[in-house]
């Protein structure tokens, strides 16, 4: 009986630990949560397979006014282009649930990418919000910079202007580019975590 009770207790602790780990927020300086996902082109990618390359994750919703500010001005594409041309992998993630603002299927996601001239390496569809909840993604946009060792180095806003007005881009500090420049130069990132702004990620009911 004592052995049986001990086994149940240890099993409970193990399950609790796993659940806690799954719910724990991503942490700067720790390994970024790994995931496997389908892209808009039907390819399956796994974050663990990208070790050796820095990765930027961007949560997006094409109907969100804040996202539109960055894409319609070309600011997001310029940021994507700089990182990808420097050797980073850029993954745009759509966590809008079916029926929610910003939800798209693979074909529409591809059409959006082409019409907006994006430089994202991959566009990932996350309609169940599994990756979004794994990273506790709160807004669109919400950025996460992961180094070549798989360690999270920056998370938060794309810049320091929490506004949907295109005029706010003038003189804005692009946190994503600043963090990238420091990482590329082997320097310490000054602002490793900032408050994200934008539309809330449109998870499904109960998510």
3D architecture notes:
With 207 residues, the protein is of the alpha/beta class. 33% of the residues lie in helices and 17% in strands. The chain is built from 6 helices and 9 strands, in the order H-E-E-E-H-H-E-H-E-H-E-E-E-H-E. The chain has helices at residues 2-23, 65-72, 75-85, 106-116, 130-134, 175-185; strands at 36-38, 44-46, 55-59, 89-94, 122-125, 139-140, 142-146, 152-156, 199-200. The strands form 3 sheets. Strands 5-4-3-7-8 form a 5-stranded mixed beta sheet. It has a two-stranded antiparallel sheet with strand order 1-2. A two-stranded antiparallel ribbon has the order 6-9. The radius of gyration is 18 Å and the shape is globular. The N and C termini lie far apart (40 Å). The model is unreliable at 1-23 (pLDDT under 50).
